[in-house]
Each structure stands twice: as structure tokens, then as C-alpha cells.
Fold:
Amino acid sequence: MPAFSPINSKMLQAPVGPGQELYSKRGAMLAYVGRVRFEPSVTGGAGIGGAIGRAMAGESAPLMHVTGQGSVMFGHGGLYVNVIELQGDTLYVEADRLLVYDASLQSGTMFLGEQGGLSGVIRGQMTGQGLFTTTLSGHGSVAVLSHGGVIELPISPQRPIYVDPQAYVAHRGQVTNRLKTSMGLRDMVGRGSGEAFQLELSGHGIVYVQASEKKI
Amino acid sequence: MLAVDLMGETIRALNGSMVAYDGQMNFKRQGMTGGEGLRGALRRRVAGESMTLMEITGQGTVYLASEATEVTLIPLQGDTLFVESESLLAFDGQLRTGVQFTGLRGMGTGQGLATTKVEGHGMVAILSDGPAIGLEVTPGVPLCVDPHAYVAHRGQLQQDFVTDVNWRTVLGQGSGESVQFRYQGHGLVYVQPAERGGGIMEI
Structure:
């Protein structure tokens, strides 16, 4: 199955054919070759139950289902595009950062409270990401959007990574996350270093970090 | 993005510019004076060249970035770098900073009357909208730069204005390049491939 091929750092080309369908962010198509159909999709491949779950969770970026025969070019808002290949593992990503992914991937919504209990809920609230995140699992390609490109940082049990919640893009693998605060007296009086909250990621996996603190 | 390996040293960086780190790190906002003493702080306040820095100390790697802009590293060997405070991302803890009054130049570009100078031995990371290029200036070959694309300069340079204002500019039919900075002497000027907005020289 040919994967997504980047055209430049902000655009990519994806083949579409029988058995090679895509879900993409609605309106992110730039150009296409061949006979390609775009249909608005509510479920995004997650089934009716999943769709209701998504709507309730507020993780409902509008998607479209891309079918037909040809190839499609995607891009959005001049943002950097990164292709992540999944080989049976799970990617955790915010719904509004998803540009396009293989329809063969299973998408779902995960309640952040499942990971880390109450602190997961607080994490979601503090970082403005809501309490839910989108999961994609299976074999296939995913393209995520970022402001200013991403770097991949490997996480190992001996080497936990701390990330600014606003610069966090996605992560994969067996990772537990935890909100770390280093609030001090200085933060209280408005003279903080601007780094009072950090996301601690530990376990085995990769975290994707963008070069900016801007949300999409 | 900039990765800095720290082994117990101190660097100073723009407040809130950390995106990720591993190891043990301590972030502390700098005091009012920013290591420049009371007089330095006062000068900075008067000049409107305020900058908020934090001190980072620890063991490990820290990743710094700001608004997806490009980062250029400039090694300083005892010389002085002049840079706008808003273009400064991070620098070695042992470098000294101060304020340099620039007169009319800053007025025109909306960047205030002063610029920040960094001197000593160490690395400085500056921000630019798009990759910055360093243009060499040698005696006899002056360099003219668009004020909005100027980022920083170093070396023995004199700065003055070149204006090309005529009746067309007054009528609003200018080429958009009516005012330039001219650098003469010996040194390097860093220029970015984008033009900042603001200032009275939007003509």
C-alpha cells in the first residue's frame, strides 16, 4: 500500500483507490487528479456509537470521506504536515490536528481520565485539550498538523520527557502522562517563568512536539 | 527549534519558550534587573526595550522555540552583538546584556529608541521570521537594509539613514522601499526574509 508522500513541508499527496480510502479534515483538499469523491462524514469510521461519543466529548472536528481512483493533495492553513506510520500501535492525537488518515485505521475517543484518573482530568482542563483525545490504531499512515514543524522525542523508562502542554502534538506507545506543576511563590505574584505546568510523559514511546506554543 | 545540552550550567532564555526537556531542569524568572544592575534596569525601562527572561539550570537537554520562528546561533568571542530584544531567544549565562541607544533609527521602525546589546564569550540564539542570513560589511562597501527586515548586527559598524522620499511617496505611490539603513565599517548584519509591520515608515 503506497503511503502518503510529502510534496513539501506543508503539503502532501495521498493515493486513493479501491480499498485505499481516506478520512480527512473537511476542506483540507487542495487539488486532485482522477475521479475522486468527497463526502462529509460524521462518524469518521468510528461507527454510530463512536460518533455520539465524539460529539459528547467535543472531539468532533468535521471530517470527510475520500473515495474513488486517483491522488489527492492535502494541506491546511500553511501549517506543517508530518506523516506518521502506524504498525499496529496506537497514536493519541487531538482531533483538530488530524489532517488525513487511512480509512483502514480504527479511530476512537479516549477519556483522559482513564489514564491517570483525576489528574488526567485536570491535565485536560489545564491544557485546554478537553477531557478526551482521539486514538488511531492499526496499520496505515496518519498526517498531523503542527505550527512550525515537529520533532520526535523518544521516551524510555529511564528518560521521561517533560513537554509544555501547548507545544504537545501527539504521542504513541505505552506512555503514561501526568501533569507536573512547579508553581512557586513567584508564579502567584505574577512573576513566573511561564513554565509552571509541564506534561510528564514516561514509559516506552515517542512524543511529537511542535516548535511553537500556538494551538490550531 | 533549539536544543541545549546543559551540564549544570545556566542559560538565560525568553520567558515561556521551553517546549520540552528531559533530565532535571529548574526554571526561574529573572529578577527585575536581569543581571544588569539597578541602573541597567532603569535604562531598559526608559528605553522601552523590556524583555522578560528566565534562567534555566540543570542536567539534561532543553528544547526551546517561539512561535514557529527560525533560530540562528551566533557565537560571540568577546565582541558585541546588537539585537532587538524581541528577537532574542536564549544566550549563555555568562554573557552580559545592556541597552544601547540608537536614536532616530528605532523611532522610524517602531522598535523604540534603543536596542539590546549582548557581549562576552558564548552562544546567542536569535529568532527570525524565516531563516536569517548574515551579510558581511567591509570598509568601502556599505550595506543597505530594509529596517523591517533587520534582525541584528555585530562588529564595528556605523549606522545611518538613506531616504528616497519624493513626490510619488507623498502621493502614496511609493515603491515601499523609501527608507533604508546603511551600514558602514567592518562587521556582519543579520537580515530575515520577512518584513515586520509597524512603525511610521510604512511607505
